[in-house]
Amino acid sequence: MAPKHGLNGSSSSSNKRMKSESSEPGSMSSPAAVQEAMSFEIKIPLMNLDKKGKESKQNAELRALAEEHISPFQGFDAPEDELNYHYTVVPNTEWAAMRKYNNFIIQGDTYKNNQFVYVKGKTETGTQPRDFWIARILQVRAKDPQHVYALVAWMYWPEELPATAKAAGETSTSSGRRKYHGNSELIASNYLDVVDVLTFAGKIDVERFSEDLDDYAVSDPDPSKFYWRQTFCQATQRLSDLPVYCICNGHYNPDKREYEHICDNGDCQTLYHSECLVEDALIKRYHEEYPQNETATNGTKPKDKKNKNGKSKQKIYSKEFKGEFAHDQDEQSPPMIKITDKRSTPHTVTLQRVACPKCSTLFE
C-alpha cells in the first residue's frame, strides 16, 4: 500500500535518529537524523547487576519502572529472545498516566496494534515509500484525542543500515544495502521510539519472507507487498544470518534469478549458480589430469599472485581448460557442461553430465 497522507500537514516530529557517540548511555536511537527533541524517550536500564557492584540512583529508578519488550521478530537461526530486553519510557509519570488503546483513527483510517505504518519526517515532501520511515505499532496510549502516542519498533530500509551493522562473517566497514537485499526488502529491528500518531502517513503491507523451497525452487515473496527476513539487534549491532546457497555460500536476492539449478536429490536440494557448477567441474577435471597439484579452496593456485581484494587472479585450470553450459542440447536431455581442452591443437571438446558438488547426484 502506498503512502496515503503525504509528509505535509503535521507539526509533530518523530525522533528517528542515527545511533551516534553523543547519545546518552542507555538511550535508544534509530535510523535517520532529525534534530528536534521528542516528548518521550526510551531508556535501557541495566537489569542484571553484579551483586558487588554499586547501582546508580538513575538506573535503580529506571529499572523499577522498566517494561519488557518481547520482540515480534526472530531472524533465521537466531535465538528466540535475541531482540528482547527491558526498557523504560521517560518521562514515565506522563507515559504511565495515559490510557492504553488497541486502535485509533486518523483521517478516517483505523490503525491497530501490530500493523506496519509509514512515518513522516524523513524528508520535507514525498509520495514514494522510501520517502518515509517504516515502523510496527506495538502500543498506543492517549492523554486525550489531541495527544495520542504510539510505541513503535523501527524497520530499516537496507540503505539506512549503519556501518556497525554486521552479519556473521562480514568484515566490510561499509554501511547500507547488501547485494542480496531485494528492492522491496526491510530489516526488522528492536529499536524502539514513542511517536505522535499524527506522524503516520498510512499503512503498509509487510510480511515475513522465509525462503522456503517449493517445487524445487525458492518461493518468492508476494510482489505486491514489502517483506522482511533479517533482523538487526540494537544491543549487539548484529544482523541475523540468512540461508546460504551454492558452493560459494551466497545469499538469495528475490529480485534476481541467479540460482539457475537445483539438485534433484530431495535430501539435498541445494541451489547453484551456473558459473559455480562449471568451475567445480573444471577443478575436478584438472585434478584428474594433475592429481599432484594443490588447489586453494577457491580453485586457485595457493602461491598465485593476488589482487587488491586478496583474491587470486588466476584459476588453477585456466591455462588448460575452459567450460560452459551446453545450450544446444535437446530439452529432454539432462544438463551438460562443455569442457574445452586448450592443451591440444585444435582444441578438443567433451560433454560432461552435471553432478551436484555436495552429494554427487547427477542433474536430470
UniProtKB/TrEMBL annotation:
SMART domains, per database record: BAH
Superkingdom of the organism of origin: Eukaryota
Region (Disordered): 1-34, 293-346
Sequence ranges of Basic residues compositional bias: 303-316
Stored CDD domains: BAH (cd04370)
An MF annotation (GO) of this entry: chromatin binding
One matching Pfam family: BAH
PROSITE patterns for this protein: BAH
Biased composition annotated in UniProt, kind: Basic and acidic residues: 317-330
Residue ranges of every copy of the BAH domain listed in the record: 109-243
Protein's name according to its UniProt entry: BAH domain-containing protein
